[in-house]
Specification:
- The chain has seven helices and eight strands; from the N terminus they run E-H-E-H-E-H-E-H-E-H-E-H-E-H-E.
- The protein has an eight-stranded parallel beta barrel, surrounded by five helices.
- With 204 residues, it is α/β, with parallel strands linked by helices.
- The N and C termini lie close together (11 Å).
């Protein structure tokens, strides 16, 4: 199997195989269990971490899914990073979370982030990454580097953008957007710590 050790996987239930029924994505449903099976496949690879990116779910569903994914990732000794749902992360006493830059700013000012061991955010400019540093982010996702299924029609910012971000921060930078294993060498050469792949992992 390809070595994905420099990748962070981002999971999204909308990217399940085409024959999956995603209309009833609730705990106990067929699509829910198929998604968990896909997460297990990803956790069994050499990824360094998995981000559970499910912003479109109801929070109660996300929290149940997060709890099940924590169990899976613990079994495979993989870090699971929750995404966006701060209250769920607090209730689950989970130390890793990924937030939008605006969420990071709001929650930091409100003093709601002291319980987390690691906080990430996404950036789209050098100004963004400087703000992320100021707000105490531990790492950033920079993108989108290439055109991606998730943002169809949006042109990629390219490796020159990625290099500019990396050159202007001491934070670990992970490239996102259209990532594939064959693009990893260019990403690392630009100064990134690694890359984040979503659709490719959901098609394993």
């Amino acid at each position: 199997m390809t070595d994905y050790s420099a990748f962070i996987a981002i999971t999204n239930h909308h990217l399940l195989p085409p024959d999956s029924d995603t209309l009833d994505f609730i705990p106990g449903s067929v699509s829910y269990h198929r998604f968990l099976a896909q997460v297990e496949k990803i956790a069994a690879t050499n990824v360094s971490a998995i981000v559970l990116r499910e912003k479109d779910l109801e929070e109660t569903v996300y929290e149940a899914l997060a709890k099940d994914c924590i169990t899976l990732c613990t079994h495979y000794n993989k870090k699971l990073i929750l995404h966006s749902f701060l209250e769920s992360a607090h209730r689950l006493n989970h130390p890793y979370i990924q937030l939008s830059l605006s969420q990071l700013e709001t929650y930091r000012k409100a003093g709601l982030l002291s319980d987390f061991a690691q906080i990430g955010t996404s950036v789209h400019s050098v100004d963004d990454v400087r703000l992320a540093e100021k707000l105490g982010a531990d790492y950033v996702f920079a993108g989108n580097i290439y055109e991606t299924e998730c943002k169809a029609g949006l042109a990629g910012r390219g490796l020159s953008f990625l290099k500019e971000v990396c050159d202007n921060t001491c934070l670990p930078v992970y490239a996102i957007g259209g990532m594939t294993p064959d693009r990893l060498p260019g990403v690392l050469e630009a100064g990134a710590k690694g890359a984040c792949m979503m659709s490719g992992f959901m098609k394993l």
